[in-house]
Amino acid sequence: MAVIVNEGRLLLIRRSIPEGELVWALPGGTVEQGETAERAAVREALEETGLTVEAVEKLGERVHPDTGRRIAYVACRILAGTAHPASQREVCAVAWAAPDEITRYVPRGLYPPVQAYIGGQ
């Protein structure tokens, strides 16, 4: 998952097809064979949001409580572009959420290392 913060706001995407209760999420997807979590985060950010980013730091990994899949969280810095739903098949909206707005999008809250990273930006 790409953790992209700009001007203190976290980029979230609204999935075109929700995964259970998970409607809003960080940009991300499957790590392809031979690909690192960092490369996957960069690729998925571009595919889903149109942003060109670079991986800065891997924040951690966990089994996601809603999907049961292993997720790696990678902090990314924007290099170019404007966030938009770049893949209509996968993403129907994007939002830049301030820290106090995140639970409106992700009621369960964020993975603690991601929350700590956002707080330090």
Q: If you had to describe this structure to a student in words, what would you say it looks like?
A:
This protein has 121 residues and is α+β, with helices and mostly antiparallel strands. The chain has one domain: Nucleoside Triphosphate Pyrophosphohydrolase. Helix content is 21%, strand content 41%. It contains 3 helices and 6 strands; from the N terminus they run E-E-E-H-E-E-E-H-H. Strands 1, 2, 3, 4, 5 and 6 form a 6-stranded mixed sheet that branches. A hairpin with a 2-residue loop joins strand 1 and strand 2. The longest helix has 13 residues. It is globular.
Helix content bin: 10-25%
Let me know the largest β-sheet.
6 strands, mixed
Question: Which residues form runs of ≥5 with pLDDT under 50?
Answer: none
What assembly state would you assign to the polypeptide chains in this entry?
A: single chain
Q: Classify the fold: give the CATH topology.
A: Nucleoside Triphosphate Pyrophosphohydrolase
Mean pLDDT: 93
> From the coordinates shown, what is the CATH architecture?
Alpha-Beta Complex
Please give the radius of gyration in angstroms. 13 Å
Question: What pattern of helices and strands is seen along the backbone?
Answer: EEEHEEEHH
The CATH homologous superfamily is named Nucleoside Triphosphate Pyrophosphohydrolase
CATH top-level class = Alpha Beta
SS summary, helix count? 3
Strand content: 35-45%
* Shape call: globular
Record field, number of beta strands: 6
How many individual domains? 1
Query: N-to-C terminal Cα separation, in Å?
Result: 18 Å
Give me the secondary-structure category: alpha+beta
